[in-house]
Amino acid sequence: METTTSKTTASRSSALLLDTLEAELEEYETQLLELNTYSNELTHKYNEKVEFQECLEKGRKFLAAEADGASSKLDTVNPLSSAYGAPAISEDGMQPLLADASRGHSGASSVVHRTLVPSCSGLASGGFKHVIEGEMKFSSTVGILKADEKSRFERMLFRSTRGNCFARFAEVERPIADAATGRPEFKIVFIVFFKSEVISAIINKICDAFGARQYPVPDHLTLGNASQLGLIVRETTSELADAREVLLKNRELRLALCSRLARRYSEWKAVVLREKAIYHVLNLFRADVSGMLRGEGWIVASAEVDARTLISQTHAAMDLAGASMLSQVPLPWPVPPTSFDVNEFTYAFQEFVDTYGVPRYKEINPALFTAVTFPFLFGMMYGDIGHGACILLGGIYLLITHPAYRRCVSSAGENEMLGGVYASRYMLITMGLCAIYVGFVYNDCFSLALALFDSGYLWEGSKGSVAGSVDGGAEANLSAPYGSTGSIYPFGVDPAWHISSNELLFFNSMKMKTAVIFGVVQMTGGIFLKGLNALYFGDRAVFWLEFMPMIIFDFCLFVYMAVLIFTKWAINWDRRQLMGSCGIDGLTFDQRPCSDGDSLKHKCALNFGGETGGCAPPNLINQLINIALNPGVVDEPMYSGQGSAQSALLAIAFLSVPVLLLGKPVYIYFQHASQPASASQPISTQIEMDQDSTSSEDPKSKEVHSFSEVLIHQCIETIEFVLGMVSNTASYLRLWALSLAHTELAQVFWEKIMRTAINANSIFFVFVAYSTFAVRYFGVLVLQCKLACV
Predict the structure, then answer these.
(1) Residues 582-600: pLDDT tens digits?
(2) Most buried in the list 265, 390, 598, 728, measured by CB within 10 Å?
(3) What's the count of helices (H) and strands (E) in the chain, helices before strands?
(4) Which residue has the higher pLDDT, 677 or 398?
(5) Which residues contact residue 469 at a Cβ distance below 8 angstroms, ignoring those fewer than 6 apart?
(6) Which residue, among 537, 549, 533, 551, has the nearest Cα to 663 in the 3D structure?
């Protein structure tokens, strides 16, 4: 279809809507940024005040303990001389402080009067100097430091000042937020006594290097400073409370704003995505006459009327009659894209098929067949009544809760993983139903057989069916003649096989052959779909030179393999073994003299050849291998002339491969060569050729290049088909392997957990064992097997 629309008309409403949305979002962004900036500033100041309060408390204890001359109960790390020894007099004439104390020049005894001299104003800006007037003058600084930097800080103070300082430390009992980073950390408060402006500068540099912040803590013991210190403490406490209230209010405002934005996020996202999609589509248009835009695209034929109606309604709503029009592009058209109408049931299967490839326009949609085969093959892998019931209940739960999930998605946005689970709810239901059905066929429910009908076998000591007690090693006999109605179990596997000693051999053979049969049926069905597509499109080359060689190759090897399985199942081997035995009267079945020492081939009345003459059941695996590795030789034939028939089928299958490889390229080449020179075009039936090639290129070189491309493509397709048939047949054996593994693992859980508990005759033990069995069964056999299948 071709659409023509006015450029100004198409962009007017979108631009107005986006401008309004942009202005609204900018307003919200400005508010949020202002609140965040104010919150950061308040948080920084609040953390500084918390550190200052800790410094006030610890500094007061420092000075009080020093004035009383008592041993402080704080964490005293200095004097430094105890750790490093008394330093000697330095070359610059600076006498170490601790050396004076060792010589009796005690600063504490010489104090006459102290005054408070602030070194600079504000918090975390360098501290206060405590000047002592008399024989000696001391200064001090109080600050806070990370706890793990204590040893390094102390060592650096001692080495940098050469022992001319006195430091004490006290730990902060709880982690506090760092004023710079805001992260909670354990810290320590320190006080350093010193003299000399030079040492003060050194200490300030060390504090900057270690990230230590210094705070102005006054000496409350100096006359008039005790009341000042109390006033500072009260003011700091009051400011902390006020700052906390402001921070909480700021957080409430930010939370309210973010909640309001979150509620409208889905609406805004939908608007932006819709407008973005509109602009993306408009970018595909190209400029036409008089400011019009023109674009070509595809529309589903059934939706053309709806599209025209929608355009008319839009024009009427905006009072823009004739602003755009929709018309059909004249033929010829390029190949249209593929579009499938899906519903809630088929959506998951269509997505499953599309992951492997999207069918061409008007090809048969394989998703229709996948909706049937995939759940059934899953049921073959995990055929268990209990397992299928768990999956069925899970699918029903998803089906019931889906409306609530959709309401949640409309308000909070869609979760991709959870959305995929809900999209597959119908697939899970069908998988559960098929697993239950095949579980009845296998007669398996949580590793236990169900005696729904009377068994066709009887043991000595049994009562009519599988009831009663049977001694180990007892043999079962048919309750009715072989082949009669009474010897056949009405539905599924006879429960007697679940308690027989050859249970594993029986189920192994049955499940393996069943998996091969269904695999061959599905592969053959896929080949027939290819033939039907070729007939629909009238492509004779594909039908005769691709489909026919493929179906011949498939029938000669793989369908024949399924025929052998059915043949073996259909033969009465009891009768055939009787025909190969020597009677009491010394005569064979066809009245020839015989003895027990004669070979089976000599005694067999069928005389089909091989080693058994057709009177013994064959090993099908060896027969299938010998078809390719030892053609014409059949050791255990099932019918007359089997060796010759298999050799002929093998030869036909091999001859179909060159036809598949070369038939179509040669056909296209001669078809192209028979055309007139003026109409000669490069071969591009299967390979899309470069449209930008120059016109000066030789047509013959184009033909050769195109033929080689087609030949390479056909060679790849032939190899993929032949190897795919072999590998896919082996892959279908996973149906057998997983089913057998599932059954055996379930039996292990039952034998080792439940049966042990039941034999213990303890209700509590049975309860605990059942809980363990249920958890392990659901976790291992249901969840993990489901994930392995998907």
Answers:
(1) 888 888 888 888 887 888 8
(2) 390
(3) 24, 14
(4) 398
(5) 461
(6) 549
